[in-house]
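Reopening this one. Same input as before:
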Amino acid sequence: MLAGPLHTWIKRHITVRQRLERMCTSYLLFLMVATTKHSLKEAARFSCLHPSLFSKLLQSHAKVAITTLEHLSKTQARQFAKALQRVHGLPWKIAILIDATLQHRASLHPENTQTFNHGKGYVIGHQWTNVVLGLGDMLIPLKPIPFYSKRYCQAHGLAYHSEHERVVAYLRALDLEDYIGAYDRREVLVLADSGYDNKKIEKAIADKGWHFIIALSKTRSVKSEALSLSTPPSQQWCHIDTFFRRHRRLKWDTIRLATSGNKRKRMDFRVRHTSGYLRSVGKVELVCSERCNRPDGRRKYLACNDLRATARQIVTGYRMRWAVELFHKCVKQHLGFEEVATHGFDAVMSHVHWVYCAYILLHMSPPGLSPGNQSIGDKQRALQQGLADKEKRHILQKLTQIDGVQRYKDELRQALGFPRHLQNSMKGLGVPGNSSLAPSERLPHTPCRAGGPGLDFVEETRLHKLMNALRTRLRIHEPGGRGNTTQQGIPVLRRKPTVCLDVTSIVVYSYGYNSDKIVQLVAH
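Same output, byte for byte:
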């Protein structure tokens, strides 16, 4: 596929060794365009390369993908950090979203898989803890945190750490100055759900001078300000749900927030707010929130270590965490986050990092895209349409040259890999081409890509109808296993024939003895 300007644009934004430029840019471009399946075979068919090259790239060059993601995330973060504004009128400008997602296994026995249950049944696959940097309305994925099982750590000589321990080490090593330059630490907000309600994580955030809004589990121990002054530090702690039941004197306040969707609906919340102490962390603002139109049991308990924040600001800030869920949906639905059928975990890690690189590149306004707030799917379809139009213009340019038709025919014959003596011998068969078929039996002209089996697929139902019409006109019959058709004088199609009628005729690929299913039928 012709993608010269896009290849050049991608090379300009990534820093890889020269011998890996072609493979890296081809794989990134494949992830950036719209396709039905993100597999290595599809990547090879798209790029006219062998699948083993992409397999080796993912398995042997995981560090290249990691360094490329770090370079792209820092480049985009510096660009958006030049004009930082407060998010939704809140006292914070920088948001760090932490959330985990599951990657279903795409092969039977991949490495480092484990059985997870996050409330919607058991899932066999990999777990990734994503750390996303939010600058205004832009989400920038940082290097994700992989989860290593105990068996994988034992087999590879690694020290086992839990997810919370890895998050703590990640936050302590994270240097935001490398991404956005100098900043005010009081303007950084870390958002996480109740799965990260851990005192070590909260203390690691507080030690860096950042603020956090974290959903608390129902069993998290808290204490009121009055009790903290009159009781020892180790006594009179109670669970957060029990704490709000005991303090029923705290009145409910109703706040109304606007949604970010196209319909612009409003959501009503009931909140109760007070100051208290979070065990092993310190003084925080505690909020009990629930939807007005939902029954009891759907309450959220939030904790914020920014003592200046109001209840409305805390609830509004926590709702920003939903952006990371939309990020997970986007990379899974459009960029093939889960579609990597490899055995080694290094290849899975490389694929995940390349997916995040493609997500960043799609938000950098690649050539051929009109500026505007488009979704990832719209951008992919626009790139795909631009590549198809460029290929058609290239074919039209070749055909309008002197002897362009014959040279293009020779180029297609050479690309199909059909021997010259067989090409000449097939011309004398007198078999009708596409022009001699009935209008309902003709196929529209579809440009061919190099690589033979790398041609575009046609819908299977239409293939059967067209192939039956061709068999009738060519008087070709595949035996059904009963009777001897050769005695009736009917030609028999056996083994693996490849019929090349002409460059402007139809190329038929079929395989399997006594098979009626046609793998590919393309009109040239």
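So the earlier flakiness isn't reproducible anymore. For the record, The first helix runs from residue 4 to 13.
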